[in-house]
Amino acid sequence: MVKCLLVLCSLLGFIMVHPVIPSVSGPREWWPPHGTIRIKCPYKTVNLSWLRGTIDPCPWTKQPICGTNSVTYDNPCILCIESLKSRGRIKFRHDGKC
């Protein structure tokens, strides 16, 4: 439980602060390219494959977003969590519902 809480707090901090910090290297891959909240999901550096539940670190945001698995997520934060759980196999497809 403590490990899960620590990971969630770290991830939420990353999601909230990362859009403010400019990317040092590589192209920007913001999810979604437009919208109220945009995140750059660190799926290559964070492994959440052990996480079995569904977590929403941004419950206040209702911004439908479609993943490459043809699932509509309530917001980019949930898609990021699912991407981390799948080790990057699930990514952003387009804004809005699938």
Automatic annotation (TrEMBL):
Signal peptide: 1-19
GO CC entries: extracellular region
Domain Kazal-like intervals: 35-98
Source superkingdom: Eukaryota
Main location: secreted
Transmembrane segments: none
Pfam families in UniProt: Kazal_1 (PF00050)
Keyword entries, A-Z: Disulfide bond, Secreted, Signal
Subcellular locations according to the entry: Secreted
Gene3D superfamilies: 3.30.60.30
Designated name of the protein: Serine peptidase inhibitor Kazal type 14 (putative)
Species for this entry: Cavia porcellus (Guinea pig)
Upper classification of the organism: Eukaryota, Metazoa, Chordata, Craniata, Vertebrata
Gene transcribed to yield this protein: SPINK14
